[in-house]
Design brief:
With 704 residues, the protein is an alpha+beta fold. The chain contains 34 helices and nine strands.
Length: 704
């Protein structure tokens, strides 16, 4: 209990001495012992000294100069409680007690103190102030300006369009905390222990569960250990410990903590025999929010394992816990010590990552390259998969926040290829969606149809942001049309329809698939997709137009009843066809179905629509007049039929009106107006261009 009762700083020093003494090479060990045994001799090796401090208040900031005997090696860090601390390594000097009472609008209470071979200057700063360092290489002084002028404000996004990436970056960098792989060797339960407390069958089951846990088949392990943990047997405590370990690796930390506590009540001494489970227990405590208790258990474990090569990793984890407790300086000290002394060890690379993360949110598009290099160096030097993945991801994340969109997108794609199933897969999906949308917006695709097609096909699963751009899908259609690739467009849009994130664009996709299918002559496919559209989106603004298109397909297949069922609404008041020919399809179908009155009405509407649409549907006019007149005739309105035929004959004087003239002759003949009928038939015989109609007209004359 010694470690948990002492101050955090004292605890840190004690642990570091223990760890360094047990794990560092002999020459470092000798140096550490020399420092502990002869502190006065150690101070004699201090290479620098502070000899003067000047503080000058300016108009809106305070100017501080610390002059040293030689060029200083120092760090400046921010402490909780609006404090700054200047740490001068290998430096001695007076403690300048007179400055403890100094105060102005920006700073106050400068306290000089010694810590080992370092001289510390700690002072309060006013809320809302910032600072800048003006020290230069070759200068034997440290210069600080402190004031509100230098407050950069909270970290903020500097590249527009990356908001979604930026908003999650802080939480990801500071708080993302996947299960730590400590490299503590897995210790299976001794077979003799199991033999004394379990039957042969249960022994085999328990060992199978441990094997599943070791190999990462966690669901299988959870199921078996849960069975053992619910049975009142001597093996219950072991099962609970293993169940807690399984829950920890499944990131079910509350369940893990509950299992560990139940196990500890049954057999607390087991924690002395299995350091791996002890770590998982302590880390579960810390992740539950009880950092002090988690730290206590972890400190004991580090002291117990200080001579092991995985002890530095545990020390880094202790630094993480201290950081979350607010002991930032102690955490940084741990990270720096481990990073400097275990460079080729996984722990050293973990510590380097933690130190690099401290600068992550403060870099800008103008200086982020240096931090990217730090992450890439860690990635290239590390052998551990998780370290390599994290380092490379943070390099990519920096690029995605600060870099150009095309290069950032390329980096994300590269990361996904290297780590397709890693812990950052979901985050990378969101990043790629954002960057793909920005690349689309920033690129001029008007003269690069092939480039747009290539972009769409490469980013197929990441187009959600692009679909939010109103012009995206129309431009894609245009590109495929220009490349004459309708089949590929159908395949692309069919794939998009399978994506949940494309659901808002589904109506457009259904329409285009139907349109291209109809263009290719696959009316069955077109009919299918138009019907799906109407079933799913009956109130969509395009629903009426889709019904008209579907009616046209039915008409082309002579499905007259289906045409009627689909288009009869066009005869309702205040309804108006968007495609004039829809009236024709309806009227012709009604005529075939012997619905003469409605057929006549539909054809009248078509004639009116053609008259007001600058000739659209003109090729259908001869048949329209004929059907409209025939429908009136069948309804008993011969007079109306003749008037319509005469109008058609005049309108179509140069466009094959023989059919209408012949029909007018027939109706007049039925009315007993033989002379008028003869005139119509003779007109065809003399002026008709169609031999078949001339023959029929002559036969009618002969019959008279």
């Amino acid at each position: 209990m010694v470690f948990c009762m002492c101050h955090v700083t004292t605890m840190f020093k004690a642990l570091m001495r223990l760890l360094m003494a047990k794990t560092l090479p002999a020459f470092l060990l000798a140096g550490s012992l020399l420092v502990l045994a002869a502190p006065s001799a150690a101070r004699a090796t201090i290479s620098n000294r502070v000899y003067q401090v000047d503080i000058r208040p300016k108009h809106d900031y305070t100017h501080i100069t610390v002059k040293t005997q030689s060029q200083p090696n120092y760090t400046l860090t921010s402490l909780p409680g609006n404090r700054l601390r200047l740490i001068l390594q290998d430096t001695d000097g007076p403690l300048f007690k007179k400055f403890r009472r100094y105060s102005d609008t920006n700073i106050g209470g400068l306290v000089f103190s010694r810590r080992g071979e370092s001289l510390l200057v700690t002072f309060k700063v006013a809320p809302g102030v910032g600072w800048r360092e003006l020290s230069f290489a070759g200068t034997n002084a440290i210069t600080l300006d402190v004031g509100k002028t230098f407050n950069p404000g909270p970290p903020h996004l500097l590249v527009a369009g990356r908001e979604k990436i930026w908003n999650g970056a802080e939480k990801l960098v500071r708080d993302f905390d996947p299960p730590l792989k400590t490299e503590i060797p897995f210790q299976p339960t001794d077979r003799m222990i199991l033999k004394n407390i379990l039957s042969e069958g249960d022994q085999q089951a328990f060992m199978a569960a441990e094997a599943a846990l070791y190999k990462g088949r966690l669901s299988e392990a959870e199921e078996i250990f849960t069975q053992f943990a619910t049975r009142q047997t001597p093996a219950r405590s072991l099962a609970l410990y293993r169940l807690g370990e399984t829950f920890y690796k499944l990131q079910k930390y509350p369940q893990a903590l509950a299992a560990f506590r139940d196990a500890e009540r049954l057999w607390g001494a087991y924690l002395n025999f299995n350091p791996g489970i002890t770590f998982y227990y302590g880390d579960s405590i810390a992740r539950s929010g009880d950092f002090a208790a988690g730290r206590t258990l972890l400190v004991h474990l580090i002291a117990q394992l200080a001579d092991k090569n995985y002890a530095p990793s545990l020390l880094v984890r202790l630094g993480d816990i201290l950081y979350r407790q607010g002991h930032d300086q102690e955490a940084v000290a741990i990270y720096r010590t481990v990073a400097e002394n275990f460079k080729d060890n996984k722990a050293g690379q973990m510590a380097q990552l933690r130190l690099a993360d401290r600068s992550f949110l403060s870099v800008t598009p103008w200086n982020y390259g240096g931090l990217c290099k730090v992450y890439l160096d860690i990635y290239e030097q590390a052998d551990d998969f998780t370290i390599r993945e994290e380092a490379f991801f943070k390099d990519v994340l920096l690029e995605s926040i600060n870099g150009g969109a095309p290069e950032a997108l390329r980096q994300v794609v590269l990361f996904q290829k290297k780590f397709p199933r890693g812990v950052y897969a979901t985050v990378c999906r969101s990043m790629r969606e954002v960057l793909a949308a920005q690349v689309y917006r920033e690129t001029d695709w008007d003269k690069d149809s092939d480039g747009l097609i290539r972009f769409v096909e490469e980013q197929l699963d990441y187009l959600s942001g692009c679909l939010e751009q109103a012009d995206f899908l129309p431009k894609v259609v245009k590109a495929y049309d220009e490349s004459r690739r309708p089949i590929e467009l159908i395949k692309l849009f069919s794939t998009l329809l399978e994506r949940q994130w494309a659901s808002s664009s589904a109506p457009f996709l259904y329409e285009e698939i139907a349109d291209k299918s109809d263009l290719l002559g696959d009316t069955a496919f077109a009919e299918k997709y138009l019907n799906i559209f109407l079933r799913k989106y009956p109130s969509h603004p395009h629903a009426r137009l889709v019904m008209e298109r579907l009616g046209g397909i039915y008409f082309s297949e002579s499905k007259y009843q289906e045409v009627k069922d689909t288009l009869l609404w066009l005869l309702n008041k205040k309804e108006r066809a968007q495609k004039p020919e829809s009236y024709y399809y309806l009227g012709r179908s009604l005529w075939e179905l012997k619905g003469y009155a409605q057929a006549a009405k539909a054809m009248d509407l078509f004639l009116a629509a053609v008259a007001s649409s600058a000739g659209a549907g003109a090729d259908l006019l001869p048949d329209t007049y004929y059907v409209a007149a025939s429908a009136r005739e069948s309804s008993g309105d011969r007079k109306g039929a003749l008037m319509l035929l005469d109008a058609g004959i005049k309108k179509l004087v140069n466009r094959g009106n023989e059919e209408l003239i012949y029909k007018a002759g027939e109706i007049n003949l039925l009315d007993g107006k033989k002379q008028l009928a003869r005139g119509y038939f003779e007109r065809i015989v003399k002026n008709g261009k169609d031999a078949e109609w001339r023959k029929m007209a002559q036969q009618a004359l002969d019959a008279m």
